[in-house]
Structures are given as structure tokens and as C-alpha cells.
Specification:
The complex is a heterodimer.
Chain A (H helix, E strand, L loop, with lengths): L1 H31 L9 E15 L3 E7 L8 E8 L4 E5 L4 E8 L4 E10 L7 E3 L13 H14 L6 H9 L6 H6 L6 H14 L4 E8 L4 E4 L2 E7 L3 E5 L12 E5 L6 E4 L1 E16 L4 H7 L3 H5 L7 H11 L1 H15 L8 H12 L1 H23 L5 H26 L2 H4 L6 H18 L1 H22 L2 H9 L3 H12 L7 H6 L1 H5 L2
Antiparallel strand pairs in A: 1-6, 1-14, 2-5, 2-13, 3-6, 4-5, 7-11, 8-10, 8-12, 9-14, 10-11
Helix pairs in contact in A: 1-17, 8-16, 9-15, 9-17, 10-11, 10-15, 11-12, 11-14, 12-14, 14-15
Chain B lengths: L10 H6 L5 H12 L5 H5 L1 H11 L6 E5 L8 H4 L6 E5 L9 E6 L3 E4 L4 E3 H12 L12 E5 L17 E7 L2 E9 L15 E5 L6 E6 L2 E2 L18 H15 L3 E9 L3 E8 L5 H6 L4 H10 L6 H14 L3
Antiparallel strand pairs in B: 1-6, 2-3, 2-6, 3-4, 4-5, 7-8, 7-12, 8-9, 9-10, 10-11, 12-13
Helix pairs in contact in B: 4-7, 7-10
The chains are: A alpha+beta, B alpha+beta.
Chain lengths: ~500, ~325
């Protein structure tokens, strides 16, 4: 009894440790590798093309362009510059790319392509103290009066001052004073500038942030803008369409603050236009890239997921078996269903996954039925054991061949799934069932087969489940937990479910 | 809709009755008391016989052993002095492959169930035995030829064909529980409870009927012979118990089942031993085995001879209030 106690204790401890390890590992894989519990999870990959064009003036060219910095709320899959004849210099500190070349003659086209994924929402805050109070805009008396009126109208709205003003600007129909105040035709940039001026009256420092809003099918569009206002401690981003504070998920900031988005020396008429293309890929495929970005590349290199796809698929198939084995153990030792051979049900379940459930079951029943019939004839011949079972194996092969050919000719797909069943296992099932039939009658033989099939079907539903297959593959540490669970079940001394019925006369007596 | 639930009892209720479950038997009893190295001693009937002879336990006389196919035809030479004999696989179980020849002459063999077999049939049977048809896992086997037991007439009314035998569960050398298995028409003359034989639980101290079941349900008379099962009383009970007790020293197995038959002239004889006796005996006795095992573990003295153990058991019964 003492011995039992320690074995159980050790196994329980192992189980506990493996659970902790698995929980940690699952957390780690979700956080750093971007794994997910759901199968077929997709990730959007956005390609942003920035097209810079200008006319050269004949002087040496220097192009300076603001690009997203590493601290941004997305992951960069790829970054690429197409600029023939330019020397490229990337300065990660101030987030600018500088391209230099000698004098150019033709119109220049420079392409900067950025591929990002896993873009997230951010709070869009930037700490900076000692920001100067802006000077009030130089307005005429009448204009100033209008501005005061506009601000007075904006007070009614919710939120901080930048939000009040944005809401007022987006109001439909527009406030008449504001309508009169704004020029008839204006660009988005001018609109934001007027907001900044109005905020300056309220002594709130504000500026523009430029970037790209990730929208499908955006073609040669100008940079999108956001309003950035200082609240005394830090800069906060505001969406100029909604007034919502913070960095939206679909906005990539290229440039903040005073500096320009694009500076071109030795060129005129410089323009920058953005195009956006969205593609969808399996989230799983990006895992390796995520791991590299997080400095966990080594660990990823030694995981299943760095293997070639063929090996991955084989392992994915294998990783689900421990759970199938657990089902068999539960069926036999806890429920108490007798099966033919320990893992025969699991092998049948594996075949069912390949054939599909109903076709597989019907086909298997047919093979067993024909096999039993032939075996009944065989038993009259009184053959020795090894030749007899060998004959049954050959029977099974011939039945499979016959069914596959007939199935193909008759267009019954069901019959052609016959080849997926394990030949030797099928032959042994027929042999055992036939012996039981002769010794204990047909009822017992049928019962034995049905019990094995129940276990096989239960196992099938576990190993064919898409979620379970994904989870046991993506979080393969779970198999350690299953291992110790199975071992712990090896010390289970309670009654089996079927014994509650078998021994019930004993309990009823008193 | 839920009426089938009535067939089940709660684990607690079974535990209270001291019912031993399969998992507990394997983990707590067999793996703790039976050394795997000793299994061949009981799985091989030839070895069991040799050991039993040394321990002074009666077994049916061994006529000979057929080990190889070329020896099959030696059968007639081996059995020429024996009008009756039994062919058994050495590694068989559950009565599989047992051929009882009641009478034979130059033409044919007549089995216990009055079937007439030709020489060829019997040779085929032995060939099958050697090729492992009846042995566990289909391994090669040998055929054991032994003298037929002259069954005592006492049990004649209690069994339909077949051999009524007494199964004694021996725990640490103490007979713990016993039953008699009676063949029925349904069981095909075989004494396996799951095939429909009647199990009669016997009082371990007296050899008298406690309870009888068939297919897990209580019965009071034999379904074919209609003999009243309550009247069953195994004679030479102490000798039965001593065979059980001795088999502990003989094999070293702490938990075993001894199958004993009663010969008209030679008294109780051991047929075979089992290192993993089943649990159906509890149903036949109407009580759990775990209680008895606990009692033996806690209160019964160790280091006694087999005879002392049996006497201890019998004295225990007399002093114990009923």
C-alpha cells in the first residue's frame, strides 16, 4: 500500500508539472508565435506601395522619406526599395530613409514597398514634455469672432477639445458658422490645418500625423492624416473621421510631428502616392517569422513547425494518436468495454478518418461479413493455425480488390474505400470473431465486434475532429499531459462502469 | 426511459460489500503477490504436474507428452494400456482443446459426449494442438496425455455432461473463497460461467452450498437435471482445502485459483492452477472477495504449514459466531 502511494504521488506530480509546462508553453506560443486554438485561422497581410515621383532639376538628388519605425503596432514581413542608381541609407533612429544620387535627367520614380501583418490597435500616445504653447493664428477681427463662435458651438460635444472640434467638423448638416469659415474647396490637409489653428486658440499644441489607412483596393492615394494633440504630458492621436482617440488597427503611421513626409532636394513637383493590397494567409505560416522577430528563432528552429510541409503533415497525423490511445484506455479500464486486441479499435478509427465515416463503416462491415462467410468454409478444412490465418489475410486482400474494382465500375465510391483498412488487423478480427462464433455462438461474436466498433467510433470522433487535431499539433506539449494521465490511469483501482452492472446482484442483496 | 439504470449499483454500494473489481485485482492483488516469473509454472500443465508431484498433491496420472508432429502417430503406443484417457493442450485455458476419450478400439475413439472419432480426427486434433490452435496467443504447444479421472458419482445429478470441478481462490496460502461450476446444456458441457454454466458458491469452511447463480442471476435448481442445488455438499472438503493451501508453497503465487476434481478412488485431485482467477466467483458466493483478503492480511498468522493453515481456517469457523 505504501508503494502504491508513492507511485501515484510521483505520477501525480509529473502530471502536475506537465500541465504547468503545457500552460506556459501554450501561453508562449500564442503570445510570441501567434498560434491560435482555432484551426484555419487566417492573418491579413497588407502590402503598402509608396510611389515617389519628381522631376529632377539637374542638381545632385537627395530624397528623404519618413517610414514606419520599429516601435509600431505591426510586424514587418518585408521591406523593399526599388530605386535604380541611388545609394540607400536607412536611419532607424529618426525613422527616415535617405536616397542619394548624382544629377538625374529623366522623371524619377522610386518605389518603397512595405509588407506588414498582425497590425493591432494602439493607444497612440507619445510622451513628450515641455511642448511650447502654440502661437495663436493670425486672423482678422471678423475671422477671430467666427472662430470664437465655432469653439463655442463645439463645447456642446463630448470628449476632449480635439474630439469636440473633430465632431463639429464632421457634423451633418454643417454648422453654418463653420461652413462660412471654411474655404469652399479645400484639401484634407487644409482641413486638418484649420483644426490645428482652432486648437491653438485654446492653447492646445496640435500637429498632423501622416500615414496610410489600410483599405482594400486603395490606388495611388495621398497620404492619410490623423490629428495629434498634446494633453500636457503626451501626444495623443485622434481619428479625423470619427474623433476616436488612439491609433486604429488599420492605420500605419509613417511620420509624426513637424518633419515632412517627403523631402526632395534636386527635384521639383515631388509627389508621394500610396497603394494598398490585402492578401490573406494562414496565420500558422507566419509563426516562424513572428518567432524570428521576437528573438526566439532558435527555439522555433527546433520545433515541428520548422520542418518541411510533408513531415509536418505526417507529424500532425501522429500527434493526435496519444488522445486516441487515451480514449482506448478509458474505454477499457474505466468503462470496461472489452475489445478485440488492445489497439485494433484505434487502427480501425485511423482508417475511418481516411475513408469517411459512413462509407468506411459500411465498407468495413461488408469486408467482415464476406470474410466471416469465407472463414466458415475454411474452418471445415481443419487447417493448421498459421496457414489458416494466412489464407484469411489473402481473402481480405481479394475482397478489398474485388470491392475496389466493383466500386469503380459501378461508381460506388463507398466500395472503393476498402483499400484503406489494415489488412492484417482485419484478418485477425475475422479469425477471432470466427473462433468466438464456433465456441460461444454468433451472439457473442457479434457482441465482440460491436464492442470493438463502439470503441473505434469513439476514437474516430476524437481523432477526426478538426479542432482537436489542430490543438494537439499546434500545442504538442499536451501529449505529455496525456502520457502522464495514461500512466496515472495505470494505478486506477476503482470499479469499471460495466462492473457496476456485473456485480450489482452483490450490492442488491443486503 | 431510465429503468435500465436500475441494473447498475453505485460504486459505494459495491465497496461496502467488499467487491473486488478487475482494476483492483490486477493492480493491488496480482501485481503485488504474483511474480511474473512464476506464471510459466501454472500456464504449462506439464510443469504444474511435476511440481504438484513434488509437493504431494494428487493430479491425474501423466501418460505421456507429444511434443512434435512426427510423434503424433505414437499416440496408440502411448495409450495402449489405458482404455480411457484425456488429451489436453499444455498451455490451454478455459477447457479449450480438451478431448476426453471414454473408450477406444482399433477402429475409432469414443469421446465423453458419445461422439465417434476416427484415428485421423484424433491425429488432426493433436496436430492442431501442437500448432497452437488452443493455446494463448497461438504459440506452439505440446499435447498432454493423461489418465481420465473417474468422477465421483456424488455430483452426477448436478451436472449436464462435463466435469463438475471445485475452484478455490487461495490468498497467501489461505483458501479464501470457493465455488463449484456445473456444466449445463447451454454451456455445451463446459464449465465456463460466461457460457451459461451454473456457479455454486461453497462455504469455504464446510463445502456446502451458499448460493447459486446462472448468468449472474440466482437459481435454486439445475436447469437440466433439476437437482436442488442447496443439497450440494462436497465430501473430503478438508482435503480440497489442503490442495489449495499447498499450491501456494508449490508455486509461490500469493493469489491463485486451484481447480480440483473428485476422483472416485483417489479422492480430490488438482486439475490445474490459474494465476489470474476471474472474479465471477464473487457473484456465485453472493459476497465480495476484498473483505476476505483484508481479513487474511490483517489477522491470519503467517509462516504456518499448509495443514496448519487449513486447520486454523476450520477452527476460525467454529469459534466465529454465525
Amino acid at each position: 500500500m505504501k508503494n502504491l502511494f508513492t507511485v501515484r504521488k510521483i505520477l501525480t506530480l509529473c502530471l502536475f508539472l506537465s500541465i504547468i509546462f503545457t500552460v506556459f508553453s501554450v501561453y508562449y506560443k500564442i503570445t510570441y508565435w501567434g498560434f491560435d486554438f482555432r484551426p484555419n485561422r487566417t492573418a491579413s497581410v497588407w502590402s503598402i506601395d509608396a510611389h515617389i515621383s519628381f522631376k529632377p532639376t539637374g542638381e545632385p538628388v537627395k530624397v528623404s522619406m519618413a517610414v514606419p519605425t520599429g516601435a509600431a503596432k505591426f510586424k514587418i514581413l518585408n521591406e523593399d526599395i526599388v530605386a535604380k542608381g541611388y545609394r540607400i541609407e536607412k536611419n532607424t533612429d529618426n525613422g527616415r530613409i535617405v536616397l542619394t544620387s548624382g544629377p538625374q535627367k529623366q522623371d524619377q520614380d522610386i518605389y518603397y514597398r512595405l509588407t506588414v501583418y498582425d497590425n493591432e490597435e494602439g493607444r497612440g500616445k507619445l510622451r513628450e514634455n515641455g511642448v511650447q504653447i502654440p502661437r495663436k493664428p493670425v486672423y482678422g477681427e471678423q475671422q477671430m469672432q467666427m472662430a470664437e463662435e465655432i469653439l463655442a458651438a463645439a463645447v456642446a460635444f463630448d470628449g476632449a477639445w480635439p474630439q469636440k472640434i473633430i465632431t463639429l467638423f464632421n457634423q451633418e448638416p454643417m454648422n453654418p458658422t463653420l461652413n462660412a469659415f471654411l474655404p469652399v474647396k479645400m484639401t484634407e490637409k487644409q482641413r486638418v490645418q484649420i483644426m490645428i489653428d482652432l486648437l491653438a486658440i485654446k492653447q492646445i499644441p496640435a500637429r498632423m500625423a501622416r500615414g496610410v489607412r489600410l483599405e482594400e483596393g486603395k490606388q495611388a492615394a495621398e497620404a492619410d492624416l490623423m490629428l495629434e494633440a498634446h494633453d500636457g504630458h503626451k501626444w495623443r492621436l485622434y481619428d479625423i473621421r470619427t474623433g476616436k482617440a488612439g491609433l486604429p488597427k488599420n492605420f500605419i503611421v509613417f511620420q509624426h510631428g513637424g518633419k515632412s513626409l517627403l523631402d526632395v532636394q534636386g527635384g521639383v513637383d515631388s509627389k508621394i502616392r500610396f497603394s494598398v493590397l490585402k492578401s490573406v494567409t494562414s496565420s500558422f505560416k507566419l509563426a516562424g517569422h513572428r518567432a524570428q522577430l521576437n528573438n526566439f528563432g532558435k527555439m522555433f528552429d527546433y520545433s515541428i513547425y520548422s520542418l518541411p510541409l510533408l513531415e509536418q503533415n505526417t507529424l500532425k497525423w501522429l500527434m493526435v494518436f496519444p488522445l486516441g490511445i487515451l480514449v482506448v484506455v478509458l474505454m477499457r479500464n474505466v468503462i470496461g468495454i472489452p475489445t478485440m486486441g488492445t489497439f485494433t479499435p484505434m487502427l480501425i478509427a485511423m482508417s475511418l478518418v481516411k475513408t469517411g465515416f459512413w462509407p468506411g463503416l459500411i465498407c468495413f462491415a461488408l469486408i467482415i461479413a464476406i470474410g466471416l462467410l469465407l472463414r466458415a468454409i475454411l474452418s471445415k478444412l481443419n487447417l493448421l493455425l498459421v496457414p489458416r490465418i494466412s489464407a484469411v489475410v489473402i481473402f481480405v486482400i481479394l475482397i478489398m480488390q474485388f470491392m475496389t474494382i466493383t466500386g469503380y465500375r459501378m461508381n460506388w465510391e463507398i466500395a472503393s474505400s476498402a483499400v484503406f483498412f489494415p489488412i492484417i488487423i482485419t484478418a485477425w478480427i475475422i479469425e477471432r470473431a470466427s473462433i468466438t462464433w464456433e465456441e460461444d455462438g454468433a451472439a457473442n461474436a457479434t457482441r465482440e465486434i460491436i464492442y470493438s466498433m463502439i470503441t473505434a467510433v469513439a476514437t474516430y470522433f476524437v481523432i477526426s475532429n478538426e479542432y482537436i487535431r489542430h490543438i494537439t499539433f499546434a500545442f504538442d506539449e499536451i501529449n505529455l499531459v496525456i502520457l502522464f494521465t495514461v500512466m496515472l490511469l495505470g494505478t486506477y483501482t476503482g470499479y469499471r462502469l460495466t462492473e457496476l452492472k456485473r456485480f450489482s446482484p452483490l450490492a442488491k442483496k443486503s | 426511459m431510465w429503468h435500465w439504470l436500475k441494473d447498475y449499483s453505485l460504486p459505494g454500494a459495491l465497496k461496502e460489500q467488499g467487491v473486488l473489481g478487475m482494476n483492483a485485482r490486477n493492480y493491488k492483488i496480482i501485481s503485488k503477490n504474483n511474480n511474473r516469473r512464476q506464471y510459466p509454472l501454472v500456464d504449462d500443465k506439464v510443469q504444474t504436474k511435476t511440481l504438484a508431484a513434488k509437493a504431494g498433491i494428487n493430479t491425474p496420472h501423466l501418460i505421456g507428452v507429444i511434443e512434435y508432429q512426427y510423434q503424433v502417430k505414437d499416440l496408440t503406443r502411448l495409450v495402449k494400456d489405458y482404455p480411457q484417457f484425456v488429451i489436453k493442450p499444455a498451455h490451454g485455458s478455459g477447457g479449450k482443446g480438451v478431448l476426453v476419450v471414454k473408450h477406444w478400439d482399433d477402429d475409432c475413439f469414443v469421446t465423453a459426449s458419445e461422439k465417434v472419432l476416427t484415428f485421423k480426427d484424433v491425429y488432426q486434433h493433436i496436430s492442431n494442438t501442437l500448432s497452437g490452435l488452443f493455446s494463448l496467443g497461438g504459440q506452439y504447444d505440446v499435447a498432454v496425455i493423461e489418465e481420465m479421472v473417474n468422477f465421483s458419482d456424488i455430483f452426477k445429478d448436478f451436472s449436464y455432461q462435463g466435469v463438475p470441478d471445485v475452484r478455490i481462490i487461495v490468498y497467501k496460502g489461505y483458501p479464501a473463497m470457493s465455488m463449484m461450476r456445473l456444466a449445463t446444456a447451454e454451456s455445451g458441457g463446459r464449465a465456463n460461467l460466461h457460457q451459461g454454466a451454473v456457479g455454486v458458491g461453497l462455504d469455504i469452511c464446510t463445502g456446502k452450498t451458499l448460493n447459486a447463480v446462472m448468468h449472474n442471476k440466482p437459481v435454486s435448481e439445475h436447469p437440466d437435471t433439476h437437482a436442488e442445488l442447496k443439497k450440494l455438499q462436497v465430501p473430503y472438503w478438508r482435503e480440497h482445502l489442503i490442495i489449495g493451501a499447498k499450491s501456494y508453497e508449490m508455486t509461490g503465487l500469493g493469489y491463485l485459483g486451484a481447480d480440483i476434481v473428485l476422483d472416485k478412488n483417489k479422492g480430490p485431485m488438482m486439475l490445474e492452477l490459474n494465476a489470474r482467477p476471474g472474479l465471477a466467483i464473487q457473484i456465485a458466493n453472493g459476497r465480495g472477495l476484498m473483505d476476505v483478503i483484508k481479513k487474511i492480511d490483517k489477522t491470519y498468522p503467517k509462516n504456518l504449514t499448509p495443514e496448519e493453515r487449513v486447520d486454523f481456517l476450520l477452527n476460525q469457523a467454529e469459534t466465529e459466531p454465525k
